[in-house]
Amino acid sequence: MLKPFYISCIIALLLCNLTFVYGQSEENVWDTLSDITFENIVDPASGIPIPQAQFGEDVLDLNGKEITVRGYLLPEKGYKTHKEFILSSLPYNLCYFCGKAGPETVMEVSSLDAIRYSDDPIVLKGVLMLNVLDPYGLPYILTNARLIR
Questions:
Q1: Which residue, among 107, 146, 108, has the nearest Cα to 126 in the 3D structure?
Q2: How far apart are CA 54 and CA 121, in angstroms?
Q3: Is 83 inside any structural domain?
Q4: 117 occurs within a structural domain
Q5: Helix, strand, or coil here: 56?
Q6: pLDDT tens digits along 114-128
Q7: What is the pLDDT of residue 85?
Q8: For residue 23, what pLDDT is reported?
């Protein structure tokens, strides 16, 4: 009979192989998106320094590609259904806007269908676009998003 330690190792190895075969799991895409730094640039209109995103190589590789991401819907206009909203890797009370998380933990979402607000996490599939033009917007934008679960 196999000892619990060996069973754990076998399960971990199988999970790693499944992630390799089927792509990055939705829980881990946030880990990749955390490879971002910010460099202050001077806004020519105001003369004020503003942070501009500098994306890591793995993040740049995701630009324009379809990804699956798990997160929490942050409503912009009440607790209704939404086609445009913010998705956070963290629950509402810990998110970038309410807690101490960074901008790499949220993304703008444009959904094909309206999604009902819930406190529970949701899983979306859509095309990731990196925001390199608008320093006042969030660094990540998910377009053509569809609710998976």
A1: 146
A2: 28
A3: yes
A4: yes
A5: coil
A6: 998 888 999 999 999
A7: 92
A8: 43
